[in-house]
Structure to design on (243 residues):
């Protein structure tokens, strides 16, 4: 039986992913800072809840150890936890929020990959899917710091994928567009005004499962409402040679 760990699983995309894998018969562990909501989702799906702040390295190791102890191993890890809202370069910039965005989104991804890799390797291989964003492959003037952190995640995934592959682990980034979650609340009116599509969390969860089980690695996958996940094509850079 498949063992799955989902960070940020107390709500939104993470909860939808946890429910989808549970319906497919997997044993699912949810890690989140929101203990009340996290325990509720875990109880609903018959899963395991582990309190964890992914910006803390030890919490990442603890959540992986708890899942392995409960399930006997791990096969799929979805590093989904993320935050935004640090403002831009003007008066709206919030330095504490900035540090939190960087810590959760970038540190949390790196710590999560490092913690998960040995457990997946010991199970004979597996998959890590990290939640980035369309804001991680294109500019986002609404939340520049969030966009920068999501760009960093894509670069990290593409750069680490070859080393993970040598251990039998695929590593990919899911890059959702607008998704019907609380994070979208402040932008909803603008999105609707421009007649842009909003995906439901279940659509993203379907894409995450497809990416995790697909066998490809090192890709950033665009995930938008009504469309199948599609890999982003990045330019090939040829290094200049000494003359």
């Amino acid at each position: 039986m498949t063992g799955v760990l989902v960070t940020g699983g107390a709500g939104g995309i993470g909860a939808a992913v946890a429910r989808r894998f549970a319906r497919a018969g997997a044993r699912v562990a949810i890690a989140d800072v929101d203990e009340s909501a996290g325990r509720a989702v875990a109880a609903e799906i018959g899963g395991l809840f582990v309190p964890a702040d992914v910006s803390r390295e030890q919490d990442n190791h603890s959540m992986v150890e708890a899942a392995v102890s409960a399930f006997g191993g791990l096969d799929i890890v979805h590093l989904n936890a993320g935050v935004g809202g640090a403002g831009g370069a003007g008066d709206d910039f919030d330095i504490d929020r900035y540090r939190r965005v960087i810590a959760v989104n970038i540190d949390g991804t790196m710590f999560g990959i490092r913690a998960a890799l040995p457990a997946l390797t010991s199970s004979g291989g597996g998959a890590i899917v990290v939640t980035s964003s369309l804001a991680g492959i294109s500019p986002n003037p609404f939340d520049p710091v969030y966009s920068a952190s999501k760009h960093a995640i894509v670069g990290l995934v593409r750069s680490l994928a070859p080393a993970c592959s040598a251990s039998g682990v695929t590593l990919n980034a899911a890059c959702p567009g607008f998704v019907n979650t609380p994070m979208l609340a402040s932008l909803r009116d603008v999105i609707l005004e421009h007649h842009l599509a909003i995906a439901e969390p279940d659509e993203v969860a379907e894409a995450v499962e497809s990416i995790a089980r697909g066998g490809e690695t090192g890709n950033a996958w665009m995930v938008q409402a009504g469309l199948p996940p599609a890999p982003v094509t990045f330019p090939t850079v040829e290094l200049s040679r000494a003359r």
User: Anything to note?
Assistant: The beta strands are 3-7, 27-32, 48-51, 76-79, 126-131, 169-176, 220-223, 230-231. The mean pLDDT is 94. The chain has seven helices and eight strands. The radius of gyration is 17 Å.
